[in-house]
Amino acid sequence: MFKEKINRFKMNNINKNIRKLFNKTENNEICSSKFQGLKKTLQGKNNNFFLINDSNNEILQHYDDTFESKINYNKFIESIESKNNFFKQLNINYKLFVIPDKSITLREYLPFKTNNPNRHVNHLKGYLYDLNEIITKEDTLSNDTHISEKASSKIISYIISKIYPEDCSQFEKELNNKISLVPYEHEGDLFNEQNWSYNKDQSYYENKYVKNFRVELKDEYKEIPPKNIPEEFRYVSKRESHYYINKNALLDKKALILHDSTTEKLTNTIIATYKEVFFYWDHWYFNKDLINWFKPDDVIEIRTERFLENALTPIINENYCPDYPNHVILENFEVKSNQIELKIRIEDKRKIGQEASVKIFIDEKHMKNDSTTDGNYSTTISLNDFEYKDYDLKINIIDSDEKEYTITRHFPFYESLEPEFKELKSCYKGKNDTFFKVNDKNNELRQHYDRMYKNRIDIPLFNNSISSKKIFLNEQNIEYGLFAIPDKSVVLSRHIPFNDSKAIRLIEKLDNVNDLLKLFCEEDFLKNDFYVEMKSTIKATAYILNKIFNENKDYEKEIRKRVKISEKKHNGSLFTNKAWSYEKDELHKKYYTVIISDVIVKNYSEVDSSEIPDEFKEFSNRKSRYFKNDNPIINQKVLILNDPSINPFIPSFIASFKETFFYYDEWYFNKDLIEWFNPDIVLEIREECKFENPICQNVSILENYKVPIIVEFKEFKSENDKLNLEIEVHDLKTLKVNTRCKLLIDNKEISTIDTENGLAEYKIDITDITNGEHVLELLVNETRNTKSAIIKKKFIK
Questions:
Q1: pLDDT tens track for 704-714
Q2: For 623, what's the count of Cα atoms within 13 Å in the CB-facing half-sphere?
Q3: What does pLDDT average to over the chain?
Q4: pTM of this structure
Q5: Does 33 have pLDDT greater than 70?
Q6: What is the DSSP-derived secondary structure letter of residue 4?
Q7: What are 140-149's pLDDT values in tens digits?
Q8: Is there a contact between 752 and 780 (Cβ–Cβ < 8 Å)?
Q9: Cβ neighbours of 494 (radius 10 Å)
Q10: Contact 663/638 with Cβ under 8 angstroms?
């Protein structure tokens, strides 16, 4: 079934859409608006992918005649001439080489017609070497912005021929004898999450990895540790410098390589060439002090073509000094225990700390006046004299050049509710004989009413996850909807005994979540529990049906025809010994058991669990349930992904659909379940507080999401110089997991064992270890469907 669905995602669909997007006008104009909605990957012809929406506008600078370039050719030439003069005086060879952009080399594979490209190198002839004359399409990577390492030998041989033309006839042959080409699967940078522009369909998985070769050196060489490099040359921005020594290199010379990311594909070949080589990713910031320290024979500047657009053009003379910009990092900002903890660093582009003055304000009130030490500044600010409300923090930093930097942060300052609940179990008394859950793993009350509480959800990641589920299911003609059952503490907010009773609701910030708040009132919630009344779910189910089918039918009436409503006694989960936080007084006696509604479906059958595949029978000890109804409202199949809050909804959904499968999944989306059950509709129905800590999967037709495992020790005993071990490994679906486990004692590897049908036994000889306490580590390998895990367990010999 999935193979048929996969075929729908053939990439010619994407190519077709792209070709519609790009239509060349007579003026060779490609509007940047045509890249809107895409990230940084553009799919071209024949499975070739290109960079778009980059800061240098690679595609536009070459193929859009209306593109306004920033480069000043006269200044660029003047800068190169000054470098040539500078190095000539020092008797140092200097050359600038440009790696052509992929959109130049593979121009024929762009998804639109082009005229001759506009290239900065054509205006700079005589001042640089254009490697377009030797780089061919075989030297590119279809899924990456960079060239292949395999091309490095001919590129470096070409570079050496320009520096030492009289002495290089056999150079490429000699160089190839120094290196080996090792095959590997290359993951393209255009397929990174932050770059990929399209759905993760079959084309994505077929092209994410391509066969390629990496260069390895045959000779030994060493890298100089960063601590042995002067601090001012170790970094430029985030890019670390690298210094290598190879005594067996072809040239008994020192080379300084000024470069960008493309040169990383040439690194090993350059190491094979030069006895000493220093790689300096300089971002065009020329550093005379580095020249004086390293004293190179050759300075080779290698630039990717697109970066010429934003090149710096310093004039190198006696008075030249690089003007590295400073930037400020807020390393820590935390409000806790009635104080602000603050840590700031100001550094230049080389990561060298800078002296600066620091002024701190809270709502314009001057709090601190201080200065950095080696670029660092840490302080604490007491909030004892501040009232509880929201504030604005402002930090002014002024560097030695009188340049000012400002950091602002809005922060709430309120009394935390955590101490209020610290001594309680799971039940919290509200006003007017109301009861709420506390100290649950989702911190329901704190997430809604504690202004100091920090949510754990990554909102953009969550929104992307839900969007991917929706796309995945819709592509298979399956309707999808996500619904939030409001928390009791939100609906009964007026009974919360805090000064501020307005609930903070996370789901208001989330996309594609249908909020059921307007459907429930105070009377809809059980007095002694945190769930809604069963009869109240009928109207909510009717609302969900209308929402899914975009209708306005009286589904509530239809459900009521198919159910019988009665009453029953209910012992509240908030009143059990495990949950009740107070003395068992008259209040406890009064509400421990209450009369609630009971909804019973008139005509239905529950499918025996033996008919459900083992992998879908349960998840995390919660049983799945499968129902059929011969008299449904809707003659379709629905899969309901849920948590325990679904329980009172079960009869209403059974009455509504021909087949209903309830699957408790803890947010782990199971594509295999979709394939087996083949639903018409998938509903996710979650308790509101559960949105605080979801699993955020990026769901696609080919990608599997791995679930956690549980390791149970059936035996773990130290005796007679043996550690007897028996384990059982299963996943959250309670399926046995066959995997390999590595055993370590006190970080020393002992052995590996394999589980068979989830089980493994092993006796570890501990004769040679000392008496006392030790730690066994069990490193469990991941499998196709399960995550890896590290289990630690102490034992005493």
A1: 678 899 999 99
A2: 9
A3: 93
A4: 0.74
A5: no
A6: H
A7: 999 999 999 9
A8: no
A9: 11
A10: no
